[in-house]
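Before relying on records like the one below, remember that each one covers exactly one chain. Contacts with other chains, cofactors or solvent are not represented anywhere in the record.
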Amino acid sequence: MAESVYIESSVISYLTARPSRDVVVTARQAITNNWWQDHKSKYEIFVSGLVVQEISEGDEEAAHKRLKSIKGVPMLGTSEEALSLAADLLAQGAVPQNSEEDALHIGIAAASGVNFLLTWNFKHINNAHTKALISLVIEEHGFVCPILCSPEELGAEI
């Protein structure tokens, strides 16, 4: 059975965004496209209703492109366990109080038992300073923390 990956909204945004003049953004777009084309098929991928909500926002044409990119991708539900995990991640300071959606992405992925949470969010999700506390909170709930990583860390190249 293939390992599972929860695709967080930032990955979809980089995948479908117009080419950028910013060198870092351009590199992330290239890495994301490489992962999507060459590595996605190696995994069982998932999104959630939260991902759909987030990528539906903003410019109508861009939102349509983002939604089209995940057509057919199975959706994970937002269980009571996911909500409880998110609340504890916020309460224990693993994720800042004003970042409820980021905590919920982690909660959904952990409660659903996926192996990886794929994200470009280095501020609140894939952050070296907070990963240990995120993992501890999740383990206190009896779940295994998914590996929080970027497409580059999960095998993609430029």
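DSSP finds seven helices and five strands in the chain.
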